[in-house]
Write a structure and sequence with these properties.
Elements lengths: L17 H19 L9 H24 L3 H27 L3 E2 L1 H5 L10 H11 L8 H19 L3 H4 L4 H8 L17 H16 L3 H5 L9 E2 L4 H25 L3 H5 L2 H8 L6 E5 L9 H5 L7 H6 L11 H5 L5 E5 L8 H35 L1
Parallel strand pairs: 1-2
Antiparallel strand pairs: 3-4
């Protein structure tokens, strides 16, 4: 029986002072301006400059509110949903400018002119290790090398935090999940958590057998809002129907009904793969069992089912934790804390949070901020 949260004393920290919050935010302001406005090679075109300034101020303001309010999830979600919305706007616009369609002809894929995404990274490992073959039709010197490098840097710092601070798809389902005031479907079978691991295993083996990124070719819901193989045949048409149906079900309908990131929690093989790296990331979210009164607000708040009654009793999140901060922010007793591995659980949790957020937000500015700026620039070019 869950404890009635109304009997628990509230222990939320008081807001920081404005000057101290500004001081803590100053490094992010400088970094944002360097990345968005003054970086080498940045476009000097006026609207691109304006979009860079808007993005830098946007990212800085959100970080300021994180510092001021001690709340992480709310402000991170604004960034993440903006990233999820603006990525397809900028990306699809560029596709239409380049080729007049979201569909890429198969000959273009064979020629290696496919923009590379992080999703197929786990699908490349076995074919590359066993046959020295890269089963993705892209340029290793360009898009693939850059994306793998960005992914590796982010992953070493954040583990599966990638899925909360860098994934340019997840903000779509997180935004949809935020729309309803309450979930229509509340009872979710915990065994669904194992499905992404099954999808990961199946897609890795199929990619090795077929020598193609099988998930991208057949099951990725986000092909519906990015780039897909042009439907010139019955097989191509079937692929595109699958993409649209999966997008409608996993990214729109189920998040709206459950208020969860269902595609991430139940289907994404890349998310399962990222969970492994939570073992080497130095940052984690822990539960202080001495302060926890199991009201299970944290379990209900978790957007991807990374808490259970059993894990709460053990004082830890599950391996799939995305470090989004929802459980930390909702706990009325501050029993859930940001933690640096190797330290005592009670060791300055706010300092651990700051260290994580400086790393995560700096990388979010560099990666996600660039995408947001491109989306804003696209909108400005259309309407100005």
């Amino acid at each position: 029986m869950a404890t009635d949260v109304r009997t628990l004393p509230l222990a939320r920290p008081a807001p920081r002072g404005i000057l101290w919050s500004l001081f803590l935010t100053l490094p992010i302001l400088i970094w944002s301006l360097l990345m968005m406005v003054f970086r080498p090679g940045a476009s000097a075109e006026p609207l691109s400059r304006i979009s860079g300034v808007i993005t830098a101020l946007f990212m800085t303001a959100l970080f300021f509110m994180m510092m001021r309010t001690h709340n992480t999830y709310r402000w991170r979600r604004i960034f993440f949903v903006s990233l999820g919305i603006l990525f397809p706007i900028g990306f699809i616009h560029n596709l239409y400018v380049m080729r007049g369609s979201m569909g890429i002809p198969i000959e273009e894929m064979i020629a290696g002119r496919t923009p590379f995404c992080f999703m197929p990274i786990p699908l490349l490992i076995l074919p590359a290790a066993l046959t020295r073959t890269l089963v993705f039709p892209g340029s290793i010197a360009g898009g693939i090398a850059a994306m793998v490098g960005i992914w590796l840097a982010l992953t070493l710092v954040m583990g599966k935090g990638w899925c909360s601070y860098a994934c340019f798809f997840g903000g779509i389902e997180e935004g949809v999940a935020a729309i309803p005031a309450r979930a229509r479907i509340r009872k979710l079978d915990s065994r669904w958590r194992y499905l992404p691991w099954a999808v990961l295993l199946a897609m890795v083996l199929l990619s090795l057998a077929l020598f193609e990124p099988a998930y991208c070719m057949w099951l990725c819901p986000f092909k519906a809002v990015s780039e897909y193989v042009a439907a010139r045949s019955t097989i191509g048409l079937i692929q595109n129907v699958i993409f649209v149906l999966l997008f409608a079900g996993l990214v729109i309908a189920l998040p709206f009904l459950t208020k969860k990131r269902t595609q991430c929690a139940w289907f994404c093989p890349f998310g399962a793969f990222q969970s492994i790296f939570n073992k080497i990331s130095i940052f984690e979210v822990k539960i202080d069992k001495d302060h926890c009164k199991p009201c299970l607000l944290c379990q209900n708040a978790c957007p991807n089912l990374s808490l259970s009654k059993e894990s709460v009793a053990r004082g830890e999140t599950l391996l799939s934790c995305m470090k989004c901060g929802a459980c930390v922010d909702v706990c009325p007793r501050q029993a859930i804390v940001w933690h640096i591995k190797g330290t005592q659980i009670a060791w300055k949790p706010e300092r651990a949070r700051l260290m994580f957020l400086y790393s995560a937000w700096a990388l979010a500015v560099m990666f996600g901020g660039t995408i947001i700026a491109q989306g804003i620039a696209t909108i400005l070019h259309v309407f100005v």
